[in-house]
Amino acid sequence: MRAIVYQGPEIVAQRDVPPPQLEHPGDALVRVDLAGICGTDLHVIAGDFSGIQPGAIIGHEFVGEVIAIGSAVTRFKIGNRVMSSDFTACGHCRWCDRGDHWECQERAFFGTGTCFGPALHGAQAEIVRVPHADTTLGLMPKGCSDEAAILLGDNLATGWAAVERGMLLPGEIVAVIGGGSVGQLASLSAQAAGAGAVVVIEPSETRRAFALANGSLAASPEDARSLVDRLTDGDGVDLVVEAVGAAATLTVGFGLIRKRGRIISVGAHAAESWPFPLARSFANELTLGFAIGDSIRLRPRLLSLITTGALDPTVVVDRRVGFAGAAQAYADLKAQKIMKAVIDPRI
Questions:
Q1: Which of 69, 245, 275, 289 has the largest CB neighbor count within 10 A?
Q2: If you average pLDDT over every residue of the chain, what do you get?
Q3: DSSP assigned state of 57
Q4: pTM assigned to the model
Q5: What's 297's DSSP letter?
Q6: What is the CATH number of the domain that holds 41?
Q7: Contacts 24+ apart (CB under 8 A), 73-79
Q8: Range of the domain at 167
Q9: Is 256:205 a contact under the CB 8 Å cutoff?
């Protein structure tokens, strides 16, 4: 079968690889109808995360059709159209019972090597093996497009997790640092949750324009503080969402927050340490937290927002390619020429 594989730092290519097989009773095989290219994939191919080996199939966002199931799979039948979380979870341990699926000891993250659990081939392929299918997969409902389902599996779940973890109250002011797909979907999530105003902070003029066209305010990093001061009478925002995954942007967040405010980071961090402003955080009673999108837990609520038209995440998708165009899409995403690409194996 055809797949997009990691060849080495910054190099991906289309290759013919053996198709996956059922390995455990809880597995399903899904024929991929659409796969996403995510900012996390850029970290993977850059070598920011350990454990990815040449020849590994990459990608962790997909929708498709079930073509085979193991003997223990009970929720799905061959022919079902399904969406997926970007990681697997067993569904029955104490972490899963609490809805904390990311903490499941049987977690595996599609297409990211061994950094976040056992290696599991990714979804930028014609067929993908899905462990713990009864938990990891969800049925595609009417009113949810393939693009929306792709985004619910990771980017939208991550943006919503930031708002949820930040305990956003209606009317509060939010700053989102980073105008990529996760940052823009965090902005849309905050708007849907009742934020008084959202400011997307982004150096790219094109991405600032996108934010303005989709309901938020926007500012360059240099102008962010002055805009925040005008909105908050100099106090600072109630909630900062850091959607880049860098120490520098975390530091920017501390320069925008009000006393007793909250900073939630959903960027994929690879750095081992960062100089935390401890004394200031204590004196101003600041809260710093981190969140990872859990579409297994969030799927019902986000599907309701999508199918009722309250939230349309697909506005961020601006490139659809076949396997032959995937390498160029990776390069254009890194260069910020596009915001979100999807791969259609049928093209």
A1: 69
A2: 96
A3: B
A4: 0.95
A5: H
A6: 3.90.180.10
A7: 73/25, 73/26, 73/27, 73/28, 73/133, 73/134, 74/134, 75/133, 75/134, 75/137, 75/139, 76/28, 76/133, 76/134, 76/137, 76/139
A8: 159-290
A9: no
